[in-house]
């Protein structure tokens, strides 16, 4: 009997499944998402793959899952009714926040309302000092009375965040025990477990976010686990973290905040994997699905990870892949604003009702409808499983937009794509140009169902010379789930001026973090030989408000290691801010440890079969480029071999995605079956369009 490891990624429109057989061969399936209950779509996708292989359910040995449950809970504001228990006198920290203003010159800017209203923010009689000294012991009886009142008020989850609990968590631990006495098994999030770091506002926000999404995440994981078991799939279930590592379903249920960026993380991990086995070590990723466009950067073979960010207006502090997301996708709706200008997104038709051409009840023109009208996609998707109603897309585009703009349907459809592309270009610039990165020195790697439809246009706009379209781009994020390692991130605050730093104490604290990490890996049954550690230090110049994170060797901390740390920090500061201050003292803030349980993926992404260099198209159909219909060759991705090459315009069709190659562009299939597109410059593109019949 064959053995399969499965990766399942749930998107706004489709659920993608990738199966890896024990010999390294990879299989793909794609089914519509079920927003009302994601677990149904997950099971449908798994069944489709098993049916394709005619394999029994007990052949599945592992299920790795990327989910948007926590993300959608926050986006839709339908999380648990959450209460906050904090130190007496600090109930308004959530409201006060930081003095910084995201919209400095917007006179009408409004602050985000906290997830916990003021009447559900209660105070506890306790106080811990910054050095960990307990000034006031927790009044447990008073707290129990508070908890009983909150339960009567219909609270569904509780967050505990006491002042300076990162330095001493005793009072928080006693509070948790008191709550469990009153309400056993009640969802409680404790800041010293979720984020044991200084900065009360960020720590409180992150803990509240965990409490807010945890009940829904717990329910979903339990429901999915139950459906898997009911269908004879008893394999371990792991969930993708925002940091790009996997965690068990039990950990995901308790640390749900770490799954807020679970969805887009898989694709970034897959791009990192490709960067290590191909010549393309510097990659800009573009994950374009039905509802969103996610951008990440792989630099020198490593994807960027940050320790803080803002999600839906809420500051958070936890390790996550550095990704920017905008509301742009195949389902993004085209509309006219009050001034009559054409706009695209962020509102999306999603999976239900979907684009008009899907014939599922959609009534508003979308980006996918524009591609259908322009011949970029044919009359069917998913290998013929989904038929497209192109006339319906033309009609709605004419009625809603073209007639009002006094333009042809083709002009409007191309305008929709240009507006959508402009939005995506801005997102890429945020992750590159605004961070001092030159996109011209990178390749663009598109994935998601719609990524390869837009890739060459995006690359041309940014003067990116090459586009690398991976195998099965529509399932690429799901593939990333299977190459992602088990990973945990530990942290402790050690706030010291340079003159007060005790190198021995630093080593002691790192050893303590390492011991905790080893226990977590042992619990997840990861072999000791497969575990690696990465030490990091949050460091800044004395007097600064924010710090940079610098990696240090996993060796005993000596003066040499310290000197290296300071020098690397100064170099990073120079790169990030344009200057360094060699005569200023530094101070360290936090110590971090990343532990990774590596997996063997040597057999994945095998070398392809060589072709004759001149593949035959399966069809020729008209497609619209730059105000002109052109006869465009259509190729089947399955029939392309290593070494095959041709010039655009061309369209490559496969089960889960469609790739568009523009006039003047040149495509070559590399040894690992990636499609390598040499993007024509603006002048060459224009000349190719003019020369076309």
Overview of the structural elements:
With 693 residues, this protein is α+β, with helices and mostly antiparallel strands. Among the domains are: 4-74 and 218-259, Nucleotidyltransferase, domain 5, CATH 3.30.420.40; 79-207, Rossmann fold (3-Layer(aba) Sandwich); 486-597, Dna Ligase, domain 1 (2-Layer Sandwich); 619-691, no CATH class. Helix content is 33%, strand content 27%. It has 17 helices and 35 strands. Strands 3-2-1-4-11-12 form a six-stranded mixed sheet. Strands 13, 14, 15, 18 and 23 form a five-stranded mixed sheet that branches. A four-stranded parallel sheet has the order 6-5-9-10, sandwiched between helices. Helix 5 links the parallel strand 9 (157-161) and strand 10 (188-190). The radius of gyration is 26 Å and the shape is globular. The protein starts with a strand and ends with a helix.
Give the C-alpha Rg.
26 Å
Would you identify the CATH architecture of the domain at 79-207? Answer: 3-Layer(aba) Sandwich
SS-based structural class? alpha+beta
Terminal Cα separation, in Å?
55 Å
Stretches with pLDDT under 50, minimum 5 residues: none
CATH C-level category of the domain at 79-207: Alpha Beta
In CATH, the topology of the domain at 79-207 is named: Rossmann fold
**Largest beta-sheet characterization:** 6 strands, mixed
Which band does the percent of strand residues land in? Answer: 25-35%
Instruction: Work out the number of β strands.
Output: 35
Spatial strand arrangement across the major sheet: 3-2-1-4-11-12
Shape, principal axes of CA atoms: globular
Mean pLDDT: 88
